[in-house]
Amino acid sequence: MKLVNHVIIKLLRYSMKIYLFDNAIDSFEWSLRHLRTFLETDSNFENPDISTTYLKQAILCLNSALELFFKERISAINPLLIYEHIEINNLPQVFIDYYAKQQNGEIDEPLYNYVIENTELHTIDYSKCIELYCSLYSVAQGHKKNFIELNGIRNKLTHLGIKSQEEYYILAGRIADILNYVHYNIIMKIDYLPTRLENICLEIFNIESVLSNLEESIWRIANESRIEEICNNIISYSNCEEIQKYLQEKKILASFGSTFDADYVYSIYTMKRDDNEDTEICSIYGSVQNNALFISDSDLNDGPVFAILPLIDLNSKQPRFYISNDENGTNIPEFQGQSDFWKEKPYSAHFSYVPYGKNKIIEMLKKIINYMSIIEFKPFTP
Length: 382
What we know:
alpha+beta
């Protein structure tokens, strides 16, 4: 009996090969399945006794998938980087054997697959993995923050659970952002089974949409009256005599209006083109994870950004906000994925923390008009 068991174990050892990327895809698909079940069961998190287990399993699988995806992407740059305590003067024999066989044309597989088959080596821990991956692939701080937070939330869920609906909606937003990142920066850039990836992308899109809407809805409900007050304030200053004269000097026809029926967007500044058509130039929209309003050309990934209005700062006794120091607004690479970029180098030098009042709002509006004056409209060509 012992001999039979030994043979079975030996066969399993060599037949049950779950390689790094396959493992990542498997964990990611399981996270999507658990998220779908959770959303179908209790999307508003009203019955946590029933639904928490699905959310917990989704986060465990998603966290695991991220670690595996990141290690695979790091390995694509240099396969040695994912292993701990690697010294050039004392390379593990398995590495030497692998590269020798590769040079002789005896193997055609990634190093991590060969290592799994032939030895047990420890890879870097997840915190190091996040830091290294984000550095190598120039990941925006906002995404990096969500990777780190998800790992912390995973531990919290495992041991303490979620205390309130508000915590759940913040979590929903983080997961939505991570799914979006994986979709466009990992899944869409890999050479893998096309039909399987297509199904994954469709599932990501459906789940991410639901989670994003949940996050925005609770944030909007909590802050709607204050946001409306801020938007109306800015709109009223856009109609003041000083701004109207500035528009005339620049020979621009433009108007600011509110639009609370759009997702995340609360006000839009439109400009009339030469053909008399209105074109959206910039908008006031909510950044839920930053708990702030951005004023920017939100149709462009790099801005320009004209102002950031953190709600916590506007609700203080002496309200303040951040205004661009640049005459036409400040371009920030992928600013919607950045976290507190206006406070951190190298972009902090481009923003001033100023009193929230008529003078600075008018200054900000003039920067938007300056931007309008340099825009070139090109005819649409299909």
